[in-house]
Structure formats: C-alpha cells, structure tokens
Specification:
Elements (H helix, E strand, L loop, with lengths): L3 E13 L4 E13 L3 E5 L6 H8 L7 E10 L2 E2 L5 H7 L4 E4 L13 H12 L4 H14 L5 H4 L9 H13 L5 E5 L7 H18 L2 E5 L3 H7 L2 E6 L2 E7 H6 L4 H8 L39 H5 L5 E4 L2 E3 L10
Parallel strand pairs: 3-8, 3-9, 6-7, 7-8
Antiparallel strand pairs: 1-2, 1-4, 4-5, 9-10, 10-12, 11-12
Helix pairs in contact: 3-4, 3-6, 6-7
The structure holds adenosine-5'-triphosphate (ATP) and magnesium ion.
Adenosine-5'-triphosphate (ATP) binds next to strand 2 and helix 1.
Length: 325
Amino acid sequence: MNDPILEIKNLNTCFDNGYSRIHAVNNVSFNVQRGEILGIVGESGSGKSVACLSVLRLVPRGGRIVGGEIIFDGEDLMKKSKREMRKYRGCRISMVLQNPLTSLNPVIRIGDQVSESLLLHSKEKRGRVMSKVVDLLKAVKIPSADMQVSQYPHQLSGGMRQRVVTSIAIGCEPELLIADESTTALDVTIQAQVLQLLRDLRRERGLSIILVTHNLGIVAGMCDRVIVMYAGQLLEIAATEELFANPCHPYTKGLLRSVPRLTNGKKRLISIPGQPPDMSRVPEGCPFWPRCEQSMDICKSENPPVSTAGSGHEVKCWLYAHETR
Ligand SMILES: Nc1ncnc2c1ncn2[C@@H]1O[C@H](COP(=O)(O)OP(=O)(O)OP(=O)(O)O)[C@@H](O)[C@H]1O
Ligand SMILES: [Mg+2]
C-alpha cells in the first residue's frame, strides 16, 4: 500500500559559515506512509534533527534548504509562503523537540501552556478551552488531570512533563508527529510509558510518526521502517525486521553489532572504529569509507548510487551496486 502523508525528494540543507559549506542533509529522499512509525537512526551529527526541522522549514539560523521537495499530503511545502507554513506547523505537523524538559515555561501553569496552542491553532473558544485541556491531559494518561492544570512544570516528574509536551504536540490533532530524541532524557520505565503512549496515539488517531533515536532497541519495538543516516546522507532504508535480519551497509552492520546483548556473555562490545567525519570536510566518495572494513578503491572517489537489496530495502553502497556499476 502506498499512501504517503509525507514525501521528501532530494532534500539538501546546508550551513554556510563564510569559509565552507556543510551539507547537513545531502540529497535525502524518503516517505512516511499514513499511520506509519518511521525511525531515523545514525550517530550524533548525522543530520537527523536538521532533516526533521527542514520538514517544517525551521532550519536553524545560518542554514537553509538549497534544494528538494517536501510534499505533505500532496502539497509541496517548499512552495508555501511563511504565512501558509504557519497553518502546517504545530497544527497538521507537530514536533516534540530533542530536549522536551526545557520546552515548558517554568513560570506558567500547565493548563495555560497547553491551552495556548489550542487557542492559537484550533480557534477553540476561551471559555471551553480548559475542558479540552483536561481531555488532552487525560489522553496522554496524566493521572488526576483536572488537578494538574494548575500545577507548574517543576511540580511534575520528568515523565509527566514529557506527557504535557506530547499533549501540546497532539492538541491540534496533527497528522504527522515528529519526535526527535524525545525520550532520551527519561529513565527507562518512563521512556517505555511514553513510547507506549505514542503507539496508542498511532492506533487511536491514525497518527504518522517520525521517531528519531539513538536507541536501536526502541527502533525494534516501535518502528515499521528505519532510515540509517550518516554524514548527512541516507545510507540504508528498510522495514525494521528486514533491517535487523539482513542489514546490508557496513555502517548499519556496525551499528547493530554495537548493541549490547545478553548472549554476548563476556565478549567485548564491538564499536565502529573511528569517528564520524568533520562535516566541513566530508571525504570524497562514500562518506563512510575511512571507517569501512570493506572499502574498495571506487568508494574513495565516487559516491555510490542507491541499490535495491530487497522489497522496500535500499542501500547506498558500492558492494551492492553490481548492476549499476
Ligand atoms: N545551527 C547550526 N549551525 C551550523 N551547523 C549546524 C547547525 N546545526 C547543525 N549543524 C550541522 O549539521 C550537522 C547535522 O546536525 P544534526 O543536529 O541534524 O545532527 P543529529 O543527527 O540530529 O545529531 P544528534 O544525534 O547529536 O542530535 C552537524 O554535524 C553540524 O555540522
Ligand atoms: Mg539531533
């Protein structure tokens, strides 16, 4: 079934610092199907957050989208005016940011923070908004929701604050939710509860979700498909089961090998040797070749094409490019 809510085509987002250009997102294409949870993984600095922010056209200062299409529900967001974009942000597409615990204002009561976005985006009447706020807090499973509206953020635990942030994000009933490392700062039990909440929202509201995470365990438990990013490029994409059973790119294999397993016994944890490249000096050819055990001469000079490794499984690596070579 091909029914995408979002299609990203050849997205390029760069930062210019006057001396050099950083390709934070380099020719990336992917789609998100309606009701799908799509995971994005990759080491720090690989372009996951910039790719997500580009979807909302909220690239940090100094950066800009220099090419590509962002098709949301059939409309190219790149062609929208600033005013039109406001109808999408926080309304049809919403985002839970990398550091949710700092997203709440410490001196404003929870109820007022949640109602603010409802009043702004959904034209809710001021008199009726508080009952909607309580409904929303109940939807994210905050106990005694009607009491919590008058609390300040510091009076809530980390997990509860995260639920409040999520309630703001789903308040206007978005079709797409982008959760960027939104559970990283939480302890594992709270993390599991928040992830269960996202799963419930998908089931109950048909929400599509982009889930950015470093944690491959979360990917395995949550995502339908996964994207692997490295140095701003998309190296592999596959259904989650397929990616875990049959990883193709040496980088993906390295990421999977570095996950601790009980069955490893006393074996040492294997990490990928070396460091991700300095983004202002990404090597020629495939960006991963200096760290790749299987690199060949061609990898050092030419960027590999995208090859098909199975149904819905694509990989950008010369080892799989026999037909296109
Ligand atoms: N505000 C900025 N100014 C200049 N360059 C930036 C800025 N934000 C990001 N970059 C560049 O874009 C690259 C990708 O950054 P991004 O934040 O998308 O990485 P990430 O994959 O989300 O990493 P992390 O896992 O640490 O969140 C960085 O390596 C950096 O070079
Ligand atoms: Mg990030």
